[in-house]
Write a structure and sequence with these properties.
single chain, 283 residues, alpha/beta, six-stranded mixed β-sheet, four-stranded antiparallel β-sheet, 11 helices, 41% helix, globular, ATP hydrolysis activity
């Protein structure tokens, strides 16, 4: 089994006003996996991410990186954030330099790398995010989708082992959402561990290796996507809907158009293949 790279242990967090935002969170993130944190707005997803990166400090419990409790001393936090990067929902919260190149180079420069090494990291980040044509463009002239990609490039230039995406497709149209998810798939293939938060059940189901469902500051279930979504009581408790692929599969089985033994489709192509196979058998 892959090693656990990031872990929350009995994690609790309350805001200064007394709001109990996280309640006894226990979650292991394995190296190289794609994990979705699924929940409605206010479930605690973003607050959990701030814990993973050391931005917030637990009220109780702990965050572990590679098996060790993280330290909240400045030097240790800098080292942690080189390994665990966050791409926030609003890219404007991350872009603050005059040009795209300056913004992406900010992190590596502050780590004390030579100009040559910084330039190499920026070039690779631009290539990976397909933003090389934006290198000299002022950040304030970028489109929303371009800002999303540049904010990712800024994190990639730090060469993290884990990247956390907070509602990555929020505000994107369907085409740009699809392109964005293709980028995440590319990063995953390159070995980066990816955690994303979303309330989009279709995205979480089709994309992730594993899902953790949050509700009211707690993780109420976690496991493989198909297994979790078959537990309708969990889905209803978390105020979520079923992914359309599972709904369609269930409807086709109920009508007898697919045999009950047909595996749950992970993609629309899987569903079409099952329907075609059934039709070919019938012929």
């Amino acid at each position: 089994m892959p090693e656990v790279i990031l872990e929350a242990v009995d994690l609790e967090y309350s805001y200064p006003d007394g709001t109990n935002a996280l309640r006894k969170i226990n979650l292991q993130v394995r190296k190289g996996e794609k994990i979705a944190i699924l929940g409605s707005n206010g479930a605690g997803k973003s607050t959990l991410f701030m814990q993973f990166n050391g931005i917030y400090r637990p009220s109780s419990g702990s965050i572990k990186y590679q098996g060790q409790d993280i330290s909240y001393k400045n030097k240790a936090l800098i080292e942690l954030r080189k390994k665990v990067g966050i791409v926030f929902q609003d890219p404007d919260s991350q872009l603050f330099s005059a040009s795209v190149y300056q913004d992406i180079s900010f992190g590596p420069l502050n780590l004390g790398f030579s100009e040559e090494k910084v330039a190499d990291r920026v070039k690779r980040a631009l290539t990976d995010t397909e933003t090389t044509d934006l290198e000299d463009k002022p950040t304030h002239l970028l489109s929303y989708g371009q800002k999303k990609r540049v904010s990712i490039a800024g994190v990639l230039a730090m060469e993290p082992e884990v990247i956390i995406f907070d509602e990555p497709t929020a505000g994107l149209d369907p085409r740009h959402s699809q392109e964005f998810m293709q980028l995440l798939e590319k990063l995953s293939i390159e070995g980066i561990t990816i955690i994303l938060s979303t309330h989009d059940v279709d995205l979480a189901y089709s994309w992730s290796d594993r899902i953790a469902i949050m509700y009211s500051g707690a993780i109420i279930a976690q496991g493989e996507p198909g297994e979790l979504f078959m537990r309708t009581e969990i889905v209803e408790r978390a105020d979520l809907a079923l992914p359309w692929l599972i709904e369609m599969h269930s409807e086709l089985v109920q009508k007898g158009w697919l045999p009950p033994s047909t595996p749950l489709p992970k993609t629309r192509e899987d569903l079409f293949r099952s329907i075609s196979a059934k039709n070919n058998t019938a012929c």
